Amino acid sequence: MHNIKKILALVLVAVSVFSFSSCLKYTSNILEFTTRPDQPVNTPGEVQTTTIYITENTTQAPPVNIEVQTTLPQEITTAAPEQTTAAPVIVPEVTTAPAEKDPSSWTTAEILKFATDAVTKTKAYTNNVTVDHQEAFDVRVTKAPGGQLVMSTADRIIASVAKPSQEVLTFTNGRTTNAEGENVPLLLPKRGAFTLTEDGIATAYAKKSGNDTIVHIQLVKEVGTLTNHPKFHAASVGYLDASDVDLGSTVVLNYLDITYSGSTMDFVINSDGYVSSVVYKIPIHIAVEAKIVGIPAAGECEGSQSETWKINW
């Protein structure tokens, strides 16, 4: 009977914890580089020297017995007048558009700013668009009292609760709503703005794809608890939050440690600086210990949360 209660306790904890998947709170200016064209250099005109040669001139006196006098040719060099002002050289003005820096050479700070500005600009859009939203939560129990039987049972219960979802949202005047008229946070955490900082990024890269810019950001590893939320995940992709969920008087969580390892964000940003689509992938490891009706139970789970947004501009 004691083992059965432990099995029941773990299943209840697993269902309670992973039914929180709907509680994941989700939370991107364009860099311009101006290159000035080289200014032409005008070279003043050079001083020209003109050499004039006078043809040989021989004069002979008519009297006989008088010595003939011959005038040898002389070279006379006359310098051209010195030019004090060089003639102006007219060079047509060339207008060069600002050179766009190749995204593949951006720094992490530049990538982060580009993504942040795109998210901010997208959220501020005031016209009407639709948004395709998909969400999936894949979890499996890796440790539980009772062994494989408990883990298999818990996996089946979790799978029945955390089913993939797909919906079409309406985005109007900065407000995203579902078919029931409920507000849905678009691209941003529900509890705040997209405020990710550079020290929260493990790796990042950007590249061009036609007229679009692809941005990939991977977050650093973080651990969240019931009371301490992961700083960088809370500022970007969100986190699993059980602190404000009422489990009832029969369930008491002793601890709930959630390790976020390598969460990623993959943005597609169009030429106008708006987010066309983004995919969040959040791998997690959960260690939980609880008391249900006074019976202690502990278990571990691994899985991932994924969320896709596609904005139909």
The total domain count is: 1
Count of strand segments: 14
Q: What fraction of the residues are assigned to beta strands by DSSP?
A: 35-45%
- Helix content range of the residues, please? 10-25%
The largest β sheet comes out as: 10 strands, antiparallel
The 3D shape can be described as: elongated
Average pLDDT reading: 76
Q: Which stretches are low in confidence, meaning pLDDT under 50 for 5 or more residues running?
A: 1-5, 18-70
Computed over alpha carbons, the radius of gyration is 40 Å
SSE string, helix = H, strand = E? Answer: HEEEEHEHEEEEEHEEEE
Structural class from helices and strands?
alpha+beta
The end-to-end distance, rounded to whole angstroms, is 59 Å
Number of helices: 4
Description of the molecule:
This protein has helices at 2-18, 108-123, 148-161, 231-234; strands at residues 49-53, 57-58, 70-71, 75-79, 129-143, 165-172, 175-177, 201-209, 212-219, 222-224, 251-260, 264-269, 275-292, 295-312. It has 313 residues and is of the alpha+beta class. It has one domain (2-31, 97-312). Strands 5, 6, 7, 8, 9, 10, 11, 12, 13 and 14 form a ten-stranded antiparallel sheet that branches. The longest helix is centred in the first third of the chain and has 17 residues, at 2-18. 26% of the residues are buried. Residues 1-5 and 18-70 have low confidence and may be disordered.
